[in-house]
Amino acid sequence: MRCVDNIRPCLEGVIPAFVGTCSLDGTPNITLASQVEYVDAQHVALSFQFFNKTRENILAHPYATVMVINNETAESFRLSVQYLHTETEGRLFQRMKVKLAGIASHTGMAGVFKLLGADVYRVLAIERVPGRVLPAGPEARNLLPAIRAVSERLASVADLSSLFDETLSHLERHFGFRHSMFLVLDESGKRLYTVASRGYEQSGVGSEIAVGDGIIGVAAEHRTPIRIAHMASEYSYALTLRAQALEAGIAAQAEIPFAGLAESNSQLAVPILVADRLLGVLYLESPEHRRFSYNDEDALVAITQQIGLMMHALQSAEVQEEAPGTSAASPQAASGAAVVVRYFPDNDIVFLADDYLIKGVAGAIFWKLVNAYSSCGRVDFNNRELRLDPALRLPDIDDNLEARLILLSRRLKERCDFLGLEKTGRGRFRLRVERTLQLVSAA
Amino acid sequence: MPVSAKPEVAPLSEELVAFIQGRVSILVASCDPGLLTSVVFALGCRVSPDRRRISIFVPETQGAACIADVRATRRVAVNFGLPSTNRCVQFKGRDADIEPVQPFDLACVSKHSQDFIDELLPLREMSREVLETLLQHTPEQLVVISFTPADGFVQTPGPGAGARL
Description:
heterodimer; A: 443 residues; alpha+beta; Pnp Oxidase, Chain A; Beta-Lactamase; Arc Repressor Mutant, subunit A; 7-stranded antiparallel beta sheet; elongated; B: alpha+beta
């Protein structure tokens, strides 16, 4: 047997692996390995953290034996490996760096473990160590039916909004993943914003994560899935949020809290890509340690391939089918005391009375809509006119407009009952206004 | 005592003897004359009364390659690590012998297994059953690898790792 795929549960690191090497004079050396990472069916990577004897040995004589153990069955394997090279940047390195931080945090080694490199080894042979083993538990369930069920469901969604929600609801239904988020990359390519979430008290829709920040940001920046079994403080969003809370001014008020679990232990962030272009990140978390397995990660990567294609197809469909011009429906009767809509043009920040609503592109869109409504009673709009409006500064391609409208619609639904955005067809929507609006611009 | 027991280094300190006979994991590496390595778990440790010789107990079925390597080269490396503190030490021998297990060793092996399970249970998400399976052995399978520690190193992760004991 030489296929690493068959022994991946042993690489989860519950029982630390250990590595035997030898120097050229035939002196053996043995050490624990903090991390043995699956690379592919024929390769593994070991964390290089210290310039130690193991490192000296493999640089002189690149052969080693690694013992790995399955923590549920006690089945053990000896891997004969050959050192190939060390990676100090890139996807594998980043994946291992985040994971190692979690391992360090869990084992009291925070501040001591630091990844200097990912040592990549070719697996020459895998030997099962003789001995009695226990049967595999229910975790070894076949995930293919669940992948199929989610995939079939996603293939039948008709619009982007449903795609966001159905993805999360069906991941819970078929995989049991109760806490999840769908984040979309913004126009600048530097931030991700939440368009849907599931399993949290506050939805966090509209909350933002910078690319590169935390598990989600690292998955986005390096376009690689990040899966950790233990939370590491340096990747915790709770800390980031506390730092943000210390900022002052309008910009600080215009922050929607990230919905993540306070006690998140297992996390899985999978980038959504199409043609190697990043569209967003699918994020799952759990208060349990080791909630997500290698197989879960594989399943999610497969499903996000379809999500990426679906996002692309549904956005293209909106562009193709949107109607030119506008209809002239009469506005609904707005009544009651006027609500002040305050607009800060610097970041296109919008407040409804004293409550922060939205900012950025969605804020600019909202300001345009309520102005059109106030000046001439317009309620029907289409995506094309927004795209053509130079004031909105939408990029020519990948403008993300549909996702921005979904975000705006969801924020309105969460924050008030007198304003709404409703879809009236592909690329068309209607503004619902049930209170008198008083528009105030800080410009 | 075999000829190879002549002292090459000072006797182990009593503290180190207690440590390596305690609730530690015991990992063994060997290499054959062609520099191919092998590794195995050991199931306990006994230190000679003069604290100059370490004996570890290895199941023959799981450690066949290591035992053959040690017979051929007499070289061995053994890591003792306490999971709750991450403290690790490594000893290397150049005069290792393979010896039969003594009847009194069996109690030592049994005690070590229990101690090690008690050490690991609160630390790792593993059941007692898994740990017992991992440490399973039959007395007739066990052999002793006995060596004088020619070298000893600190292996606790951190800046002091690699320092000679």
